Automatic annotation (TrEMBL):
SUPFAM superfamilies: Tryptophan synthase beta subunit-like PLP-dependent enzymes. PROSITE patterns: DEHYDRATASE_SER_THR (PS00165). Its cofactor is pyridoxal 5'-phosphate. Residues 72-378 form the Tryptophan synthase beta chain-like PALP domain. This is Threonine synthase. The keyword Electron transport does not apply. Keywords: Lyase, Pyridoxal phosphate. Gene3D superfamilies: 3.40.50.1100. Transmembrane segments: none annotated. It comes from Micromonospora rifamycinica. GO terms for biological process: isoleucine biosynthetic process; L-serine catabolic process; L-threonine catabolic process. InterPro entries: Ser/Thr_Dehydratase (IPR050147), Ser/Thr_deHydtase_PyrdxlP-BS (IPR000634), TrpB-like_PALP (IPR001926), TrpB-like_PALP_sf (IPR036052). GO terms for molecular function: L-serine ammonia-lyase activity; pyridoxal phosphate binding; threonine deaminase activity.
């Protein structure tokens, strides 16, 4: 294993990667660091094509030392779909969708769960607990069971019903909270504090290894494009782990010498009903202020105060990116328009990226001829209410 240590991006303190760890003492999430010089000497990009088509093909850049602890359901290596018809309509001729809806649990959360659970198992965890907006809880419950671990999941009552059912089917202890994900987080914090160390907090960015699974989206995009980077990557941003992970992946790839100096401009997309990152970015602030009365049809990005706010804002600014809030009505309209033109039903969070691409091209931020990758973070089949069939005759 090439993992060397954990690093705090706020205070620069190093932590022992061999110990079970949550946040730094300063309150910041921790980042896994690797001996990239040794990785570059051990493997070349050409080798990955000879390996299985899952995220574990990048094992030198992942934190699990003993392959016996790897917990997998075949996650990763999701396709890139060219969306030529919709792209022409909005003026983005080279529009590509990375479809995370085809992962084992139907969303990109399977990546973080696979790596996070594997490392937790390796470090001796027996029960994980976490708050969730739905898909992450479903994924972590599923992978915990696969690994032989117990799980406790706290979820807002308004989260997608299918996610609740997935957790129960996987044998998780499910707790429904009348509120938002922050309220679920407070419930989990109380549970962990009273557990005498028997329950591990696996909440978003409260452990460092979910991020390592999510970063493989960045590796895959580059490898699938022939080891070339796109001009723009558009990402629906709630907790922001995927955006932070892709940013981390791009910098690791550049340090390894596998891509050039030019990296993609990253775009964080939020809903006008919950846009703390957009507000902070526009104001030039380094931290977000909690969003009051958060609500959006894109439930997965309903995160009023993301723990990783500093890392999200850093990723946007270092990549010369931007942040944009889009309206729920436009999200649903673009979701249906895209499905009618391209034959792919996106989740609302993924559709928000299409709305953002349309606005950014119309305003000139996305330039003619640029290659744009949007992330569809989950299967649209989990959100059947996004398509109205009340006026369609049947039978």
């Amino acid at each position: 294993m090439y993992l060397t240590h954990l690093e705090c991006p706020r205070c620069d303190r190093e932590h022992d990667a061999g110990r079970l760890t949550n946040l730094c003492d300063c309150g910041s999430p921790l980042l896994a660091r690797y001996d990239l010089t040794a990785v570059a000497a051990a493997v070349t990009p050409e080798r990955f094509g000879l390996r299985p088509a899952d995220l574990w093909r990048y094992r030198e850049l992942l934190p699990v030392a003993d392959e016996r602890h790897v917990t997998t359901l075949g996650e990763g290596w999701t396709p890139l779909w060219r969306a030529s018809a919709y792209g022409r309509e909005i003026g983005v001729g080279d529009l590509i969708v990375k479809d995370e809806g085809l992962t084992p649990t139907g969303s990109f959360k399977a990546r973080g769960a696979a790596v996070g659970v594997s490392r937790a198992r390796e470090l001796g965890v027996r029960r994980i607990a976490m708050p969730t907006n739905g898909n992450a809880g479903a994924a972590w419950a599923t992978y915990a069971t696969r690994a032989g671990l117990a799980s406790t999941i706290a979820m807002p009552v308004d989260a997608p019903t299918i996610c609740r059912r997935e957790c129960v089917a996987a044998g998780a202890d499910l707790h429904l909270v009348d509120g938002l994900i922050g309220d679920a987080g407070r419930w989990v914090a109380e549970l962990v504090a009273g557990s005498d160390g028997t329950v591990f907090d696996a909440g978003t960015l409260r452990e460092p290894y979910r991020l390592e699974g999510k970063k493989t989206m960045g590796y895959e995009i580059v490898e699938q494009l022939g080891w070339q980077v796109p001009d723009v990557i558009i990402y629906p941003t709630g907790g922001g782990v995927g955006l932070i992970g892709i940013h981390k992946a791009m910098h690791e790839l550049r340090t390894l010498g596998w891509v050039g100096d030019k990296l993609p401009r990253l775009v964080a997309v939020q809903s006008t009903g919950c846009a703390p990152v957009v507000r902070a970015f526009a104001a030039g602030e380094d931290r977000v202020r909690p969003w009051v009365d958060a609500h959006t049809v894109a439930f997965g990005i309903t995160v009023p105060a993301p723990l990783g706010d500093e890392l999200i804002l850093t990723a946007l600014r270092e990549s010369s990116g931007t942040a944009l809030a889009v309206d729920d009505a436009e999200i649903l309209a673009d979701l249906r328009d895209f499905a009618a033109r391209e034959g792919l039903l996106l989740c609302p969070e993924g559709a928000a990226c299409l709305t953002a691409a349309r606005h950014l091209r119309a305003g000139g931020w996305i330039r003619a001829g640029e290659r744009v990758v949007v992330l569809n973070t989950g299967s649209g089949l989990k959100y059947p209410e996004t398509v109205d069939v009340s006026g369609v005759p049947v039978g």
